[in-house]
Every structure is written in structure tokens, then in C-alpha cells.
Amino acid sequence: MMANGFSVENCRAVITGASSGLGAEFARQLAPQAELLVLVARRGEALESVKTELSANKARILCCVADLATDGGRAAVCSFLSANGVNPNLLINNAGLGDYGSFASSSADKTRTQIELNVTALTMLTHALLPRMEAPAGIVNVSSLASTLPMPDLAVYAASKAYVTSFSEALSIELAPKRITVSCVCPGPTPTNFSKSAKRADGTDTNREGQGLLRIPPEQVVHEALSALQHGRPCVFPGFGVSIAGRLFRMVPRRMLRWLLKRRAAKE
Ligand SMILES: NC(=O)c1ccc[n+]([C@@H]2O[C@H](COP(=O)([O-])OP(=O)(O)OC[C@H]3O[C@@H](n4cnc5c(N)ncnc54)[C@H](OP(=O)(O)O)[C@@H]3O)[C@@H](O)[C@H]2O)c1
User: Fold this and answer.
1) Quick one: pLDDT at residue 265?
2) Which residues span the domain enclosing 87?
3) Rounded to an integer, what distance in angstroms lies between the CA atom of residue 210 and that of residue 129?
């Protein structure tokens, strides 16, 4: 079953964004099988409550408080792993942030933070941890269905996730001979804290019409992501509707896609 011999059984995993949503769910599904989980996020209390919830499981759990949108925070994760003698064989790059609304009216700080977190942290953490990862090993990068679309009013987020998907697919080829499997998961709308963080304080919002049809629970997203990783699949769109949408969006000519997105934007 295992494409490169990697199994989550007895794995030593670093999970970013593990204080809520999909990251906490990765921790829940790995805890009964893993040897060690390192949970990373900014909110220490939320990390500790995930740790407490999972304390009856097999995995030893460590919490690492760090702001991954900064160089200092990313360096702190590496120092934490060194100080605790952790050589992970699974990295789950899950932390991410969206911003609902037009690019022109976006806050420059939030835009920069999105790029730092969704793109730079994912890339540089992978770069920093790869030399420590003993094969067989795995990397899960959390992208989005949005990675397949040039989305107005979610432009930076969608572009950042297009980067994640492209980077992951390239890396899956580069690292295969080293027996490191890279899987990219592209969820559609999933009920987590994501929308709350992406909403703007002024109440402006992106058109999210049609999302209800594609919504699937975090449990299913994570289950399909871990299954894809262990079967050596480079990219997965969890859920029936999302997998059809992902295929369609990747096949439709860009010109037609832009026309459809323009019509959708005009409705608002
Ligand atoms: N939910 C969806 O509809 C959806 C769809 C497609 C893709 N995704 C992707 O799924 C991933 C997980 O998001 P989610 O849906 O689970 O949302 P979430 O519940 O808001 O979780 C985001 C996680 O990222 C962490 N985080 C945010 N900023 C951070 C920073 N500067 N440094 C370190 N950690 C940070 C948060 O923890 P702290 O606040 O404690 O730092 C939290 O644990 C993201 O990459 C998102 O883009 C979500």
C-alpha cells in the first residue's frame, strides 16, 4: 500500500497551524498512531488544549509557539526541534490565512502576512527541515481548490495557493528518488476558523455563492490527505464535488474561466 514505504505509523510529525481547524484535525487523526507530534501555531493556550484533548493517545505531544509569518518565528521552530532532539519524518505545512475582499482595498500588512505565511513559511520550513528528514518521509502541503482559479476578491490567497500546488507537484518529482513523498491537498470550503480570519473588519466580503454545495468536514479532508500521502499521490481534491470541480477548473481554457469569473463578479 505504501508507495515509498512511508507510513504514519510511529511517525514524528511537525504540524503547522495545529491550534484549530484542519491542523488540529491532523493532530487528532495522527495521535493514535504517531510516536511524536510537534504542534506549531501562535496561540499557546489553544495548542495546549489540543494537546490535553489528545493526551490519552500513543503520541508524545510537544507545543511550539511561533509566528510563522516572521523569520524569527520560523527560526524558533528549528531551534525548538534541535533543543528537543526532534528529527521529523513528516512535515504538515498547514498554517494559512485568507483575506476576503478586493486587492486595492486590502490592508498592506495582511497581504504581506498572507504571502509570508502561505508561501514563505511553507517553502522555508520545508527547506530547513528537509536535511533533518530521514527517508522514508512525507510532506503534506495544504493548498486549496482556490489554487486552480484566478479568484477576484481573493486574488492574493488564490495566487498563494497556486504557488503551493505548483511547488508541491515539482517537489514530489524531485524528492521521489530520495523516498520522500510530497502530497498536496486542495480542500474546498471546510468549516473551520478560516472564514472568520479571512473576513474584514469593515464587513466587506467575497462572493462565496455556491460554496454550500462543495462543503465537506475537516475529518474527511484530513483523512483523504493522509491517505493520498501514504499512497504516493501528489495532489488530492477531497470530496466528490471538490474533486470534480478541481478537475473541471484545471481543464477549462483560461479565457473561459476569466469570462465566468467576471460574470460572477458582476453579479455582486
Ligand atoms: N477552511 C477552508 O475552507 C479551507 C479551504 C481550503 C484551504 N484551506 C487551508 O487550510 C489550512 C488550514 O486552515 P483552516 O481552514 O484550518 O483555518 P483555521 O482554523 O483558521 O486555522 C489556521 C491555523 O493557522 C494558524 N496560523 C495563522 N497564522 C499563523 C502564523 N502567523 N503563525 C503560525 N500559525 C498561524 C492558526 O493558529 P494561530 O492563530 O494560533 O496562530 C491556525 O491554527 C490553510 O492553509 C487554509 O488556507 C482552508
Assistant:
1) 84
2) 12-266
3) 39
